[in-house]
Inverse folding.
């Protein structure tokens, strides 16, 4: 297979674009598309300080490297966040993840903060697994969203970027159709503006980039990322939309371009109409931390978890309320 551009040995065939690319032209094509998406969807419009959440996995590590390039092009400040979730179970998963994230921050000379869930909030994800009666990945997801927003705000960022890829987004969209959980996909678009109780804009710059291409790009560039799965990943597969993900992959094989079409059409044609229709709910304020709560709730989900695990409110929040 020869590169469609220069005729050298190709490293990848892109079925939905019907092109084969050598290493150099795949990297160039991948990066051009990244910048095109940033501009087309106004992902970083108005951003002055972008916090990027890095777990150490291929998606977030790749996003960090791409945002470093974007920061040089557009002139915004880049700040790295990684959370030590306290996941061990004999694998040292969190320690390894944090080490890899820090390695990448240092390599790129990006300022960063490592947040220890135990030191800052008094509990770990391993402890929540034993004591909280909900799927551990659901607790973990909620905790990560809360902590990342809080740390981004504390460091003066106006934007928080996460490494969700096309496959993640396609699962959210399809799940909205199959299971009717529209709320979730509406709350998790490529650009979520700030709202009362959450001051940072949340963005997903890789939302139209296929997972397999991210992996290939990361490998070709020699990025350091964690290969080990989280010890709870089997549970993640059970509670997540993993089965829908497999169906999407199968359809993509027979109908190249299906996944991009599914997400792109949703974002261009369906989201704007649904967002215009959906009533803006009056959110409450958490009595402990002051952040947004679901309507009718006095305490947010994060503080409820924290109270169950530590018997207290957050020290930052106590300070805020004193
Ligand atoms: Fe958290 Fe579950 Fe992901 Fe592990 S697999 S990092 S517990 S969401
Ligand atoms: Zn080439
Ligand atoms: Zn709260």
């Amino acid at each position: 297979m020869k590169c469609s551009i220069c005729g050298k040995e190709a490293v990848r065939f892109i079925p939905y674009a019907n092109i084969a690319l050598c290493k150099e032209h795949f990297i160039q094509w991948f990066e051009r598309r990244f910048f095109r998406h940033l501009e087309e969807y106004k992902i970083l419009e108005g951003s002055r300080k972008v916090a990027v959440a890095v777990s150490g996995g291929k998606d977030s590590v790749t996003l960090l490297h791409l945002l470093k390039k974007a920061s040089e092009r557009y002139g915004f400040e880049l700040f790295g966040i990684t959370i030590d979730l306290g996941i061990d179970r004999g694998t040292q998963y969190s320690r390894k993840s944090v080490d890899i994230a820090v390695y990448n921050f240092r390599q790129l000379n990006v300022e960063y903060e490592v947040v220890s869930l135990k030191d800052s909030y008094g509990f770990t994800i391993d402890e929540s697994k034993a004591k909280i009666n909900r799927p551990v990945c659901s607790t973990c997801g909620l905790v990560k969203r809360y902590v990342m927003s809080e740390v981004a705000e504390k460091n003066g960022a106006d934007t928080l970027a996460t490494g969700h890829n096309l496959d993640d987004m396609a699962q959210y969209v399809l799940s909205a159709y199959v299971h009717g959980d529209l709320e979730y996909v509406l709350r998790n678009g490529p650009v979520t503006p700030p709202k009362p109780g959450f001051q940072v804009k949340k963005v997903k710059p890789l939302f139209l980039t296929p997972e397999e291409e991210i992996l290939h790009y990361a490998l070709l560039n020699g990025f350091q990322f964690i290969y080990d799965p989280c010890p709870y990943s089997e549970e993640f597969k059970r509670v997540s939309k993993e089965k829908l993900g497999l169906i999407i992959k199968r359809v993509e094989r027979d109908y190249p371009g299906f996944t991009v079409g599914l997400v792109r059409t949703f974002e261009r044609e369906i989201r704007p109409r649904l967002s215009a229709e959906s009533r803006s709910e009056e959110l409450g304020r958490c009595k402990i931390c002051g952040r947004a709560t679901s309507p009718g709730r006095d305490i947010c989900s994060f503080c409820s978890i924290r109270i169950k695990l530590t018997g207290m409110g957050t020290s930052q929040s106590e300070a805020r309320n004193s």
